[in-house]
Specification:
This protein is α+β, with helices and mostly antiparallel strands. The protein folds into two domains: 57 residues, Arc Repressor Mutant, subunit A; 181 residues, GAF domain (Beta-Lactamase, 2-Layer Sandwich), CATH 3.30.450.40. 49% of the residues lie in helices and 20% in strands. The strands form two sheets. It has a six-stranded antiparallel beta sheet with strand order 5-4-3-8-7-6. Helix 2 packs across helix 3 and helix 6 crosses helix 8.
Length: 245
Amino acid sequence: MQNALTLMETLAGVQPVGVSELARLVQQPKSSVQRTLRTLELAGWAETAGDGVVHWRLTRKVFRIGVSGATSSPFPRSAEAQMSALRDRYGETVHLGVPDGDHLLVIARIDGTNNLRTFLQLGTRAPLVSTAGGRAMLAGLGPEALEKVLAQPISGHTASTLRDPKQVRDQVALARERGYATNEAEWRDAISAVGAAILGPGGQVIGSISLSMPAPRFHELDIPEVGADVAAVCREIADAMHRHL
């Protein structure tokens, strides 16, 4: 059981992936990994992806259970009104994320009302270093957490992804200074965002809100004003959540 859980956790971070690479990452024999994957497939937890070389990924069953657990807390319910108000002011999609290792996990979304809008499925994991919400959380988590993330190579998701650790440090420092972070098409092509962190009673980072939009509309906005608005919404969400605890 422990091996299966370890395999699932690892698979979630690298999917889709081949059996040989997965076996190397979990430090288990390839034959054992293959048997575990087949068992998970029969149970509906894993599936093969792609043509030609077989790669494995988790199914939506895992995401449904994970999101169900996240939304059973008062966090998303407390955030809904503030997220909806932010969406109404700009017509753009609003995502709520929580820390998940070196990623953020999207646990709630209020869809935009513009004809062309962004969309992330609940359960999506996004890299902290390349997203507005992630950078906002890194700004609050502090230098040690940032350096731990930067100890690993930064994946190039788009042509605009900042892969130089110094550039990422500069962006996180800027987010700490002004209270919000930005992402200009660094994780998804032609999609930009403004994000801020949600802080707990002791100042600990418990999540983030991001307002995401097609990149052309990002450049039409007064970003400092939008950033201050997103940060204010995060404070309102924190206050509302604390009242429900």
